[in-house]
Amino acid sequence: MKSLEEKRAHYKFIKATCYATCVIYIFLHLIYLIFSIISKTHILTWLNVVSIVIYALFPLLIKKGKYYLYALLCGNEFLIFMSVSTVLSGFETGYFLCIVGIGIVSFFTTYFTKTRNIKNSIIWNGLSLAICLGLFLYCSFNKPYYALDKWVVVTLFTIHLFVVFTFIVAYLLLILDYATKLEERIIRESRIDRLTQIHNRNALYTYIESIEDKTDYALAIFDIDDFKKFNDTYGHIVGDFVLREVARVAINNQRTIDFKNGSYKLGGGVVDDPTDMPYFVKQYYDYYKTDRGYHKRSLNSNGGWNITASTSLLNTRLFTYISEIRSAVLLVHGENAHSKYFSESVFKLLKGNNKELYIVKDANHCDLYDGGREHNKIPFDKIEKFIKDNI
């Protein structure tokens, strides 16, 4: 189920697409108008003027949220205009190609509006096919009303070919982008329990599968005594409250213990002997346990961080609004870093041509702390250039 914020984003996306389509159609009709004036095809000139006026009024429908009506009127206008233009100027001008291309728009409209009736799109595409065949047969046995110069015919066909391919690719990219985001949301929500808002079994399995070395991990499991009796006695609404409270207490229990003891229990820093450890632990050892990064007050060099549970933070959707960042962003990561996928994943969510992911060759996670053993892993030149180019 979509949240209110997601519904707003959905309709904002539809509205932006409708406005963009309206502008594109007006621009296209302006091009047609220029050609009709040059070639002195008076009927087409007036048709284009009428179409431009119609599209200039369509934003009133979009503003009122009448997206399906807008799409219906827009499609019919386009279909009528392209059919009449084909009869008047000939099949070779390629107006019929736009009728073929608009078929994919009908499926786009069906999916992103409330109706979602696939039958309408099938009927529309069947009608479009019938019209294209009818125009082909008509033009095969009849001369066009206007005899256009060869250069006009070739130019119009080229424009239509370019426009149709661009339309198809653009709409497919929109659908692909939306489907990708939808899939990510479904996966994300499938790993969070809606009642307690903590990670569920799916998230646990995913996390376990991502661990390379599974020999040094433990799993704690606990049960709620007599929960069924409590549920039967007080009802499921109160039972749900109990589940939420147990989850909250489990998350924050260590904080209470730390407060009572007056100290914070530490989870332990980097191991003293990394011989049999995964490669990323050895990288940490090479930094935190050697002269490169050791300090007597360093958490990783000594006792480690507090073991206070951070489940509430882990459940936070950290990158919900990351696509709205307009400022320039440079992500720098080591080629051999175990955490490289962090930057790769974040980069896919960023929007704009002022975002860049730079991978440092032969560098690991810790090499970007101090430049590595040779002090040559931090790409200062790249960082300086990026700042000068974008800030």
The coarse silhouette is elongated
Low-confidence stretches: none
The DSSP helix count reads 15
Helix content: 55-70%
The helix-and-strand class reads mainly alpha
Q: What percentage of the residues does DSSP assign to strands (E)?
A: under 5%
> In sequence order, what are the helices and strands, one letter per element?
HHHHHHHHHHHHEHEHH
Rounded average pLDDT: 83
Count all strands and give the number.
2
Largest sheet: 2 strands, parallel
- Radius of gyration (CA) equals 31 Å
Distance between the termini: 41 Å
Strand order within the widest beta sheet: 1-2
Folded structure, characterized:
The structure is a single chain. Among the domains are: 187 residues, no CATH class; 74 residues, 3-Layer(aba) Sandwich (Rossmann fold). 63% of the residues lie in helices and 3% in strands. It is built from 15 helices and 2 strands. Strands 1-2 form a two-stranded parallel sheet. Helix 13 links the parallel strand 1 and strand 2. The longest helix has 41 residues. It is elongated. The two termini are 41 Å apart.
